[in-house]
Design brief:
alpha+beta, two-stranded antiparallel sheet, 12 helices, PGBD
């Protein structure tokens, strides 16, 4: 029969096996508490502050290619540091949005404001009169109706634009809002900037054709909603074959050509918290900074210092990014590309047993 050790005997065994040379200089506190038995049995006792624990000689270490030293831990080992307090609230509209929203229309105007719609109306009329009819006009409410048709077409999937107005496949709401010919007429002339000054602005802004309206929309997305604790970041390809210098071809996507966006979303609600277009090489990004790190830091900037967790795939996840986020009270969870030089060699083994876990 195996002998059971008391708390005092177990701590003495640990103290005898501990090597002070393995400590990083802090005091090792392993003194037993005389009231430990009563504290363990009490439901109301508060958790003690986690002290620096002595590292045992038996714990293996491993040095990655770029010099990072990893210590393998036993699963369930007490953390060597006090974890940060996580963000506790669920995602919810901001106080500003709650004050403004009293109907569906006001909810829509939180994101696409009248101040954004008027320039679109002005530049669309400008383009139509310059290219076709000098008396072409569109009122503001007609532009809002046009946008509502686009939203409804996203809800009701049909094979082609023409089918949205068909008697069999079409949505009755769409046919009641606007005729197909008028919708196509507005679509043909729709513009988001001044066509006469674009050539000058595009020298410094590749996204000049829509950047003003786009910037306002993204700002409204950030200011109208407080995301919860978990935010996910990934790329999304918007299908397009328009001619522009930042058009992307990604063979693994269903639509091969398009404009790529970096998107941060709230995990539970799928709300778009922040979004950036990929416009090619950014001259303002330092040469030593990875693109993936720059993207995550920019997308997460409005939500830092609150105890949130960002989830990424192996394109983004790296040790340097984790350290930068941790300095802003933000943690990261994600898969890691096995070619990263900071990853220990033991984690790349393919012969591990099923349902096993390695913690470093």
């Amino acid at each position: 029969m195996q002998r059971r050790f008391t708390t005092q005997e177990a701590l003495e065994l640990i103290l005898n096996n501990a090597n002070p040379c393995d400590s990083d200089g802090e005091d090792i506190n392993l003194q037993p508490n005389s009231d430990s038995d009563s504290e363990l049995s009490s439901d109301d006792a508060t958790a003690p502050h986690l002290e620096k624990r002595a590292r045992l000689e038996s714990e293996p270490t491993e040095t990655a290619k770029e010099g990072t030293v990893w210590h393998e831990e036993h699963v369930g080992t007490i953390l060597r540091f006090t974890p940060m307090e996580p963000y506790a609230a669920d995602g919810e509209p901001t106080a500003k949005a709650r004050r403004r929203i009293r109907s569906r229309l006001q909810s829509f105007l939180c994101f696409i404001t009248v101040g954004m719609l008027r320039p679109i109306q002005e530049w669309t009329i400008q383009h139509a009169r310059q290219t076709e009819q000098t008396d072409w006009f569109m009122i503001l409410h007609e532009l809002m109706a046009f946008i509502s048709v686009i939203i409804l077409r996203g809800v009701t999937k049909v094979p082609s634009l023409r089918d949205s107005w068909s008697a069999c496949l079409g949505n009755p709401l769409i046919t009641g809002i606007m005729s197909r010919n008028r919708f196509q007429d507005i679509m043909r002339h729709l513009r988001f900037d001044d066509m006469f000054t674009r050539s000058e602005r595009v020298q410094t802004d590749k996204f000049a054709a829509i950047s003003d309206v786009w910037g306002s929309f993204v700002t409204n997305c950030i200011t109208c909603y407080n995301p919860g604790r978990h935010i996910t970041i990934d790329e999304q390809l918007f299908p397009s074959k328009t001619r522009c210098c930042f058009l992307q071809y990604i063979a693994t996507k269903p639509d091969k050509f398009g404009i790529k966006f970096w998107v941060a979303c709230d995990l539970k609600t799928k709300y778009i918290c922040n979004v950036l277009p990929y416009l090619g090489k950014d001259p303002s990004r330092p040469s030593e900074e990875r693109l993936s790190e720059s993207v995550v830091m920019k997308l997460m900037e409005p939500f830092m210092d609150k105890g949130r967790t960002v989830t990424t795939d192996n394109f983004f996840t790296s040790l340097t990014l984790a350290r930068r986020l941790l300095s802003r009270k933000t943690t990261i969870l994600g898969t890691v590309n096995k070619i990263r030089r900071e990853i220990p060699q033991s984690t790349r083994k393919m012969d591990r047993k099923e349902f096993t876990t390695q913690v470093c």
